């Protein structure tokens, strides 16, 4: 039987957590690396489970760590754990396949964005509930952005007013996400990209600074400063 949180919730959250964390450096799968003494995945799932609309959480774990992740999360929240795949997109597809009938809003949220707050899950879900087929949280780009050639020579300056940095959780009507993954040809770095390829509009909502992706050691140091005291 699939684990459930709020039985009246209309949201399932998929948590891809099967990545190696190569850019973070040696130390095991990234989702299991410690932030303030707890694995990133525990921080992420605790915040997902605190969002009132969430009924179901499915985690895609490193295949060799499925039992360990089940054990780790047993005291955090009711969670279904499946083995992830070789690419993020495959991990999301495997988690999606494990969502039981019921939730019609699906959010996809990187374990690596371990400090995304519960209200961000609610705001993305609310926009989907209001009729948007696909919703992404974004932040403005604050740096000047240059396009460069292979030799590092600048080709031009990009108009940053039209650019946004994209976060997770990304939210979708269930049928939209299922069709996007079923029709996927080639791997993309986010799920909204698959939906865009189907010609379906993707809507932006305000992102959150705490939803930063922990990719490199510097990001882990920043995240440590953001932990509640
Ligand atoms: N095969 C994979 C690869 C990535 N992910 C997940 O997708 C999210 C975003 O990926 P990223 O932050 O790039 O993580 P890694 O792939 O682990 O990082 P790296 O590229 O440095 O190895 C992470 O929560 C990661 O665990 C996944 O579930 N399955
Ligand atoms: C989904 C994502 O977090 C949105 O910013 C990002 O695209 C993941 O990319 P990565 O290449 O797996 O780091």
From TrEMBL:
GO function term, MF aspect, one: nucleotidyltransferase activity
InterPro entries found in the cross-reference section: IspD (IPR001228), IspD/TarI (IPR034683), IspD/TarI_cytidylyltransf_bact (IPR050088), ISPD_synthase_CS (IPR018294), Nucleotide-diphossugar_trans (IPR029044)
Transmembrane segments: none
Domain of life per record: Bacteria
Site feature location: Transition state stabilizer: 23, 30
Pfam families, alphabetized: IspD
Reactions performed catalytically: 2-C-methyl-D-erythritol 4-phosphate + CTP + H(+) = 4-CDP-2-C-methyl-D-erythritol + diphosphate
Residues carrying the site annotation Positions MEP for the nucleophilic attack: 160, 213
EC identifiers of the protein: 2.7.7.60
Biological role: Catalyzes the formation of 4-diphosphocytidyl-2-C-methyl-D-erythritol from CTP and 2-C-methyl-D-erythritol 4-phosphate (MEP).
Similarity comment text for this entry: Belongs to the IspD/TarI cytidylyltransferase family. IspD subfamily.
NCBIfam families: ispD
Protein name: 2-C-methyl-D-erythritol 4-phosphate cytidylyltransferase
Organism: Phytohabitans aurantiacus
């Amino acid at each position: 039987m699939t684990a459930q949180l709020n039985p009246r919730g209309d949201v399932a959250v998929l948590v891809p957590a099967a990545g190696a964390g190569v850019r973070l450096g040696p130390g095991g799968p990234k989702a299991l690396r410690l932030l303030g003494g707890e694995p990133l995945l525990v921080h992420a799932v605790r915040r997902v489970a605190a969002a009132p609309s969430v009924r179901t959480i499915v985690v895609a774990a490193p295949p060799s760590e499925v039992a360990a992740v089940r054990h780790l999360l047993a005291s955090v929240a009711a969670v279904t754990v499946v083995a992830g795949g070789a690419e993020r997109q495959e991990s999301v597809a495997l988690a999606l396949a494990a969502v039981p009938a019921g939730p019609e809003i699906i959010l996809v949220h990187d374990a690596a964005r371990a400090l995304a707050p519960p209200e961000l899950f609610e705001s993305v879900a609310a926009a989907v509930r209001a009729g948007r087929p696909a919703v992404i949280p974004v932040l403005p780009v604050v740096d000047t952005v240059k396009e460069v050639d292979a030799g590092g020579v600048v080709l031009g300056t990009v108009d940053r007013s039209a650019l946004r940095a994209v976060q997770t959780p990304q939210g979708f009507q269930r049928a939209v996400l299922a069709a996007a993954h079923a029709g996927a040809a080639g791997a993309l770095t986010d799920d909204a990209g698959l939906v865009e390829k189907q010609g379906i509009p993707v809507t932006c909502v305000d992102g959150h600074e705490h939803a930063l992706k922990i990719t490199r050691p510097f990001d882990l140091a920043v995240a440590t400063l953001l932990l509640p005291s």
